Hints:
Elements: H1 2-8, H2 12-39, H3 45-59, H4 65-78, H5 82-108, H6 118-130, H7 132-136, H8 144-158
Amino acid sequence: SKGSMYHHFEDFTDVIESAEVFRFARFVDEDIRAIVAVMRTISSREEMFERFGRITEVASAPVRSASRADRARIIGLASRSPRLARALAAEQDRLTDALADIAREFQERGFLKGGIDPRTIAVFVQAYSFGRAVDDIAAHKVSPDEWNEMISRIVTTIL
């Protein structure tokens, strides 16, 4: 009933925002599961970069453009709603923390260079993956192979 709905939500906007947070959380959960599954079994620096390259290919693939657009839309909505921004921040922090944990572990194992904050690495990885949303709407798209090659060069040089 309407009364019981407002027992759980402040208003109708809260209902819509909660649904958007749920969708965003699903993206986060999928990313964490996929990345952790691939990265946890690595035994060498070379294998790490090879798998990292595969993750980059999947994350930046043209077939994921709708996913990137949905995330961008949800993030855009948060700019007008502090309540939504707080809820999304918690979900975003879960993803960043999971990636930072992996980066920290790889630094401890000597697979990644030290001296760069693991959380910064985690945000950088997300930024270039999510950044493909810019090219998704371009008339003249960058070749996925060229994009992945550039990312590979940057990652292996810096990290």
